[in-house]
């Protein structure tokens, strides 16, 4: 039976030398829920995604996928089992595809890795759902555009009908014209397939459009989380306000509306944070 929690992190910490990339992170994503994770560059979002995918070990705390505990060092059998339950799409999804492969081979790969028989009907349906023409099935990846490759990366991730999809900045590397297309593909697929989605992004418009709940990371911690409409409508934490302010491109006169009603607490001390500290990679001029 499926656990009602697709993903649970309890007090997860991870350091790279003196850098505390994750600091006591607690997070639950329910089945079928879209959880948006936002935060400035370097706050730990990708590290969190990599720990959830067990591409990285963590120092302390526990992670559960679909109610089952994840070991920090899973054996091969366990990796295979978990590969059926969760999948990831990276920012450079296109870069993770072998350009010499045919589209069919890319889509079959997850079946090969997990030892499942290939579901041809699923492959065709996925291509269509990702708005890729069925005629592309026999084409070499080298002949596809960036947007088509990113949609193929999404199709590959969903080939095994995972319960949990982690998408780490899935639109950041694309032209603005393609970003909306890909976001719509995500939203359609999530609504019809019902997988839980951990969606990491700098683009607050995308997160606001797709996510049910949003978490804000700062310095390796989740400093605020709330339902999407509440977080954007009534942000509480100064850092959330700073992020939203940066996204709104507020002018000097309006910055006071958003920032520094209270200083941010970190390591027991209070720290001033200004808009200049917010690195906004997804900014569109
Ligand atoms: N392999 C690594 N070795 C050393 N430090 C690392 C490593 N990976 C990440 N870090 C550091 O850990 C912190 C968190 O990095 P992470 O990539 O998780 O942030 P992020 O929020 O995903 O950033 P971005 O939005 O720029 O992708 C950063 O200070 C980063 O420099």
| Average pLDDT for all residues | 83
Query: Fraction of residues in helices?
Result: 25-40%
Unreliable sequence segments: 250-266, 268-285
Strand order of the largest sheet: 6-7-8-3-9-10
Q: How many domains is the backbone divided into?
A: 2
What best-fitting shape do the alpha-carbon axes yield? globular
Annotation, overall tally of beta strands:
12
Gap from first CA to last CA:
48 Å
Q: What would you say the CATH architecture of the largest domain is?
A: 3-Layer(aba) Sandwich
CATH superfamily of the largest domain: P-loop containing nucleotide triphosphate hydrolases
Protein name: ABC transporter ATP-binding protein
Keywords: ATP-binding, Nucleotide-binding
Organism: Dubosiella muris
Short descriptors:
binds adenosine-5'-triphosphate; four-stranded antiparallel β-sheet; 2 domains; 285 residues; 10 helices; alpha/beta; Rossmann fold
Q: Could you explain the architecture of this structure?
A:
- This protein is of the alpha/beta class and 285 residues long.
- It has two domains: 1-85 and 162-238, P-loop containing nucleotide triphosphate hydrolases (Rossmann fold, 3-Layer(aba) Sandwich); 97-161, no CATH class.
- It has helices spanning 45-52, 76-83, 103-114, 120-129, 146-158, 176-193, 204-210, 228-233, 238-247, 252-258; strands at 5-16, 19-30, 34-39, 60-65, 68-69, 86-89, 164-168, 196-200, 213-218, 221-227, 264-266, 269-271.
- Strands 6-7-8-3-9-10 form a six-stranded mixed β-sheet, with helices on both faces.
- α5 (146-158) packs parallel to α6 (176-193).
- Bound molecules: adenosine-5'-triphosphate.
- Adenosine-5'-triphosphate is lined by residues 16, 19, 21, 39, 41-47.
